[in-house]
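Re: that chain you flagged

S.,

Sorry for the slow reply, it's been a week of failed gels. I finally had a moment to sit down with the sequence you sent. For the record, here it is as I used it:
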Amino acid sequence: MNQGDQIPELKVTPDRYLPHRYAGASGDFNPIHIDTEFAKQVGLPRNILHGLYTMAQVARANAALADGDPRALKRLSVQFRGIGLPEQEITVTGTVKEAREDRVVIDTVAEQDGNQIIRNAEAEVELSA
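Prediction finished late last night. Pasting the structure tokens below so you have them in one place:
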């Protein structure tokens, strides 16, 4: 990969039950994630995705450069900039910012319905096995 190259786009649509499954896996049962009525009472449009689920999709998109091996992801930083909603497609895109012999640094964005829910994400991926 070279500077300016695009990583393969990742598209994923979380189903309506994903926040419930993720709550069980993560231990984060905050009602904004699993209770639509509560989420509306606090000003959200409905229950929202866990931010770390969205971050995991950014990690997944970048690890795909190393045949999906998560061990190749050496560094990841993100800025959470919006809320993600179940049942709406998330698109993760990225551009190689820096290319070295065996590693690349990638600027990555996760969008949903035209809104950047993660931006200014930077991943460092080791390309050699």
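What I noticed first: The beta strands are 10-12, 73-80, 90-99, 103-112, 115-126.

Talk soon,
D.
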